Every structure is written in C-alpha cells, then in structure tokens.
C-alpha cells in the first residue's frame, strides 16, 4: 500500500498543472481551499469526488486524504487555513460558489507575499467573510461501497451516456431496480437519477474544458436533447455551457 504523504501545513500558493496532471493523495493538518482560476479541478477522496470550474471552489477539511486532477490547463490557487479557523463549520469536502469578489480575493491572496503585514491580515479577514457568505453547491459524486452499486456505477463511469433504466442495468448486475434504488439511498444518500445527473455534469465539465461542442457534450453525456442539457447545466452552474466553453 502506498504511503500517504503528510504535509502538516497546507500551502497558500498558485500552481500550474497541465491537462491530465495530478497531485497524488496527501493530507494536511490545516484546512484548504482549492480553486481553479483556469481549467477544471477535481478532488478525490475515499468518499467520492468533487469537481469545480472557475465559478466554484472546493473546501477540504484538515486531515482529509485527497488527490487533485487537472482538466484543461489548470491555474490552481491553494489557500491554507489553520485547523482552528473553520469559517464554514464543515467537516467534509464541499463545493462552494465563487462570485467575482471572492475570485479576485483568492487570486490576490495566493499571489501576494505570505507575511504578517496588516494589509495581508485585512485581505485574509475579507476572504473569510466572503467564504462565510458563499452558498454550498451539490456537486459531489459519492463513491459506492456496496459491491452491486460499485459494479453498476463502474458501468456508467465508463459510459456516462448509457441511457438504460435502473431496471435494465439491474438485469446486467443481477439485482432488481427496487433493491438498487434502496442501495442508492442507503449507501450514497441520493437517488439513482440524482447520482447519474451528478456523473453526467462532472463528465460534461471535462468535455467542455476540452473544447467539445455543446451538442456533442449533450449526446456523449446521455441527455435526451441539447436543450435539456443546457437547462440542467444553467440551473446547476448559473450560466449556459456555451458561455462556459467560450470562457
């Protein structure tokens, strides 16, 4: 078993990662905010994965073993916060909305010299205020522990565009749709349609980062039409996939 790297202090810095690049599993004694100024960043733990474009950031609590992966050329901004300083009161990774002000605060804070100046202290205080005001976003794709669900979810991970019903997938894995539906609720805390939508949104963000046309993204991710995909994307992220891709 590979040893998990332990970095006591979560760094505050900027870092570039090439598309497909990664940071191996590690943990900090500090909390960390992970933000992609460019590209899309995914954070994975043993409990699941979280993904964030430029309008979102990921909160990772102290002690959480996590790994990063880049989609697109990634301008990564990392903010470390002492474990005693938890402005959100969260004990599990969470995706947060990032408005224009919070975005600029994160970028300025990670690029400025890390010192004890009064100017940096004021910047830090405003950053915490904005974090407290940031809505949480349901962009979590939990990892199943039940063997039946693992098999089913692996099928859909390999092809998010697979549009078979739960009953049809159940025949492949050897379980009824009623049994699988109960497992989704009990093991993952969400319904099968909710989990599949999360999977498709994660995959859609990756494809859009790769400059895939919106119509092709909708088709590859299994939406019944481009307009249905655009509607779900807009309700989730607050803007259309076309504007995201253009940006």
Summarize it.
The chain is of the alpha+beta class. It is built from nine helices and ten strands.
Question: Which helices and strands, and how do they pair?
Answer:
Elements: E1 5-7, E2 13-17, E3 22-28, E4 31-45, E5 48-52, E6 56-60, E7 66-81, E8 94-97, H1 100-111, H2 118-132, E9 136-137, E10 140-142, H3 147-158, H4 166-173, H5 177-188, H6 192-209, H7 214-220, H8 226-237, H9 241-246
Parallel strand pairs: 1-3
Antiparallel strand pairs: 2-7, 3-7, 4-5, 4-6, 4-7, 5-10, 6-8, 8-9
Helix pairs in contact: 1-2, 4-5, 7-8
Describe the structure.
The chain is an alpha+beta fold and 247 residues long. Helix 4 packs across helix 5 (177-188). The protein has helices spanning 100-111, 118-132, 147-158, 166-173, 177-188, 192-209, 214-220, 226-237, 241-246, and strands spanning 5-7, 13-17, 22-28, 31-45, 48-52, 56-60, 66-81, 94-97, 136-137, 140-142. The protein folds into two domains: 5-140, Jelly Rolls, CATH 2.60.120.810; 144-246, Arc Repressor Mutant, subunit A. A hairpin with a 2-residue loop joins strand 4 and strand 5 (48-52). Helices cover 41% and strands 26% of the residues. It is globular, with a radius of gyration of 19 Å.
């Amino acid at each position: 078993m590979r040893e998990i790297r332990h970095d006591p202090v979560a760094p505050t810095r900027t870092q570039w990662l090439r598309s497909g690049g990664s940071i191996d599993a590690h943990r900090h004694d500090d909390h960390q905010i992970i933000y992609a100024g460019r590209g899309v960043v995914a954070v994975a733990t043993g409990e699941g994965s979280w993904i964030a474009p430029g309008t979102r950031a990921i909160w990772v609590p102290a002690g959480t073993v996590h790994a990063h992966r880049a989609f697109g050329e990634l301008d990564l901004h990392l903010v470390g916060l002492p474990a005693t300083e938890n402005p959100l009161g969260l004990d599990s990774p969470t995706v947060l909305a990032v408005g224009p002000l919070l975005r600029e605060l994160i970028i300025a804070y990670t690029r400025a010299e890390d010192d004890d100046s009064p100017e940096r202290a004021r910047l830090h205080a405003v950053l915490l205020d904005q974090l407290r005001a940031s809505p949480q976003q349901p962009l979590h794709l939990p990892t199943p522990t039940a063997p039946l669900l693992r098999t089913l979810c692996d099928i859909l991970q390999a092809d998010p565009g697979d549009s078979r019903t739960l009953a049809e997938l159940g025949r492949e894995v050897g379980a009824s749709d009623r049994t699988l539906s109960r497992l989704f609720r009990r093991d993952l805390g969400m319904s099968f349609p909710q989990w599949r939508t999360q999977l498709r949104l994660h995959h859609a963000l990756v494809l859009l980062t790769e400059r895939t046309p919106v119509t092709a993204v909708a088709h590859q991710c299994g939406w019944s039409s481009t307009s249905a995909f655009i509607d779900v994307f807009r309700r989730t992220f607050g803007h259309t996939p076309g504007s995201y891709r253009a940006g």
